[in-house]
Amino acid sequence: MKSFYGIQLPNPLMLGTAQYPSPAILEQAFRDSGAGVATVSLRRESGAGQTFWQMIRDLGVLVLPNTASCHTIKEAVTTAHMAREVFDTNWIKLELIGHTDSLQPDVFQLVEAARILTEDGFQVFPYTTDDLIVGERLLAAGCEVLMPWGAPIGSGRGLNNAYALRAMRAEFPDVPLVVDAGIGLPSHAAQAMELGYDAVLLNTAVARAGDPAAMARAMLLAIEAGQLAHQADPIEARDMAEPSTPVIGKAFLS
Amino acid sequence: MLAPWCEYENAEEPVLRLGQSALDWWAARTRVERRGTLVVANPRDLPDLRRFARRTEGYSEVEQSNIAELEPELHGFTKGLHFKNEAHLDPRQALRDLHKQLVDQGVEFYRKLAPLRLENAIDCRGLHAREVLHDLRGVKGEMLVIRCPDVTLTRPVRLLHPRMPLYIVPRGGGIYMLGATMIESEDSSRITARSMLELLSAAYALNPAFGEAEVLEIGVDLRPAFPDNLPRIRRLGRTIYANGLYRHGYLLAPALAQGVADLALDNNHSEMIDEDRA
Known about the structure:
The complex is a heterodimer. Chain A is of the alpha/beta class. In chain A, 39% of the residues lie in helices and 13% in strands. By secondary structure, chain B is α+β, with helices and mostly antiparallel strands. Chain B is built from seven helices and 14 strands. Chain B has helices spanning 4-7, 13-27, 46-54, 64-70, 91-104, 193-206, 249-266; strands at 32-33, 37-40, 60-63, 79-83, 88-89, 121-123, 137-147, 157-159, 166-172, 175-179, 214-225, 232-236, 239-243, 273-277. The longest helix of chain B has 18 residues, at 249-266. In chain B, 40% of the residues are buried. The A-B interface holds A 21-25, 27, 43, 45-47, 49-52, 55, 154, 208, 210 and B 10-12, 51, 54-55, 136-138, 162, 183-187, 190, 192, 225, 227-229.
């Protein structure tokens, strides 16, 4: 498994911490799934010394703070600095929202913010589209991870454009790639891993499931299955049947 | 709002079970309007309405024509859920009524320091008790009180929203309470423009005439909550702590108070007691 800025993840599930019915259920989802990374959003209004943030630290997993709901470079950079102070990490999931209804990333601002933050010593995980050129620009700006969307945040639609995600994998064979956003079902997560992605980041699909802890576990199992399948070199799809046992010479009259 | 069935959508089972007893309890002590709750969603958020319905009980599905019968001034909603057994009250009037009944029964109230001769104490100070109750946290909530006599709604209406449980509660006389955000933050110093926009947009979405409303009051405070968002009773020495009502103060207070009384008077242990070191 590829490392993320020099860190090996215990498994490829990155789990968000928003929207759970309660912190107790959030904790159970982490415990039952063994997710190795917790993403957490910081709101500027929150101030320091928050009990909720201590709960996130107490999960004992790697924390990936994010700049969720930031619409401008300035907001994102300020939030990133606050995150570094609160969680004592250079990791930042950079989210720059460009469109209110689709929560589509504003990739132009994203590249610029990634450059500023990288120069400032941050290790940036950019939430981006599946556009190859944007991916190249993000790498040129100093990112060592790319996180293309599967579908709009919270939509649960799965991998809207598997072709583009496959092309991205082929284009950046050595870059850790994470499908971030849009996952609704474990089968979506498995599909991302089958494409050769290195991790999956999801939140809503688990937090708003009827039983978040069970869904978190289902996601991990699917992700592990997809990863194993990718490593096992799956067969190609064919148009015609291919009998698994030869027909000729079979004693069909007996 | 006394809305155990709606709240059950995102809460644990005790909220549904213990909350139901609150309706009669309050009705015996203050004015309770039993007109149910109407839950609606914008057409683009209908998956959220289906999800809401799956997670709870005690409702009937309503179509546009039923919505028009229930609340003629709600516009543009094609589907909803009607929780006919839910009720609402005016929380400030309820407190006044409760206070008066206690005074009539000889209870003395001290607004500042209590006399030091207390042998046993019941501590219900919410977040102020966190120096003793270390697993208590604050969850920020923001609300508005508006006056809009042009719009008539007769029961609480919830508008499903991806980020918060938004509701509007008629207080009578054209006054409405609009709530409430839920933010994992312990800063209660201010309401943000974002929260205010979202609350007012929700009212506007229910009926554009709310655009003319007068903003009477802005409320910001922290809800005391334990990690599972359920209330607790703890006895430590001679003090009984009752806390963690979260967003269910009026809904679960009767059950919590009963649990405290059972412990203090009869040494009976209700399900809400999680620690007893008398």
